[in-house]
Structures are given as structure tokens and as C-alpha cells.
Amino acid sequence: MPQIQTRTPDFLNSSPWLRDIAPHVHESRGAAFDEAPPFQWLNTAAAFADTGGLVSGDELAELIRLQCDASVQQPVSLVARWIVSHAVVTIDSPWGCMLPMFQFDLARAAVYPGMRPLLSELQGVFDDAELALWFVTPNDWLDGACPARAMHAALPAVRLAARTDRYVALGH
Q1: How much is the pTM?
Q2: What mean pLDDT is predicted for residues 19-36?
Q3: Which one of 20, 53, 73, 148 has the fewest beta carbons within 10 angstroms of its own beta carbon?
């Protein structure tokens, strides 16, 4: 019988919610998928590892508090406004709402300006998880680049890719 690798992937250390499930990764490999629901989140977390990872709203608020000047008085309220107004991509998880880090400019306590036009193209076309994964999936319209990386240097091309993918998904 082949040996199963027991090294914990590096991306599991990027957030406390992932560190909580890391000890269970190896013991759940033999379990049925529905018996180990946190295991399905390992693939999701891995997809975001190269673009900053995923954080909870509380983690994001703490990062803003630590990395910004004192002008941000209520980082928890700021993050909550972004979530409620759908100004950011979120993913529901067994640990609550998770936010991909690629969309934030922590130094300014802001959402990158490119997110608004991209979300306006794609919201309502994909569910939250599909929308989040769209940003970290290599895109043929971008010559295989991931929109989360390409949007900072080539926003018009990424917006065109979003518009094209919306058209393909909706058929009009």
C-alpha cells in the first residue's frame, strides 16, 4: 500500500481557520467526502494561496488596524460595510464569511478600485463561490493569467474578460 504524504501544506498556516483543520487533513483522507466537510475547503484555500489567501472579516479588520494609520477608527464597521454592500467578494465557509485578500489595499484601508467594475460585470451571473474562484482561475481571455493578478496591471483586459465570461454564462 502506498504511503500517504503527511506533511501539512504551507497554505494551511495562512489563517487561523485553516490551522484549526490542519490536524484533521490526514485523518480525513480515508473518510467519505460528506463525513469530512472541512476537507473540501482545502482546495478552495489552496486556490487563493498565491493571491494572499483568505481571511475572516475579523482577521481583515485586525490587519487594517495593524497596518493603517489611526485614521481608520472602526475597521470592523468598514469591513462589514464592504460585505453588506457587496463591494467585495466573499465566500461562505463552515467558519463563516471568508474574504480573498487579493481585493484589498491594506495600506489605504480600501478595496482596490478595479474591483467595482469587475463586480458590476459578474455579480448576479455567478454565485459567491463561483465569483471568487473566477478571480483565481487562469482565464483564456487573459492568455491564461488569473484575473486577481492581471487586474492591477491590465484592468481593461480583465474587465473585457469578465464581460465576455458574463456573455458566455448568460448566453446574451
Answers
A1: 0.74
A2: 43
A3: 73
d(CA 48, CA 91): 11
High-pLDDT (> 90) share of the chain, %: 52
Cell reading at 153: 496591471
Q: What is the largest CA-CA distance in the chain?
A: 59
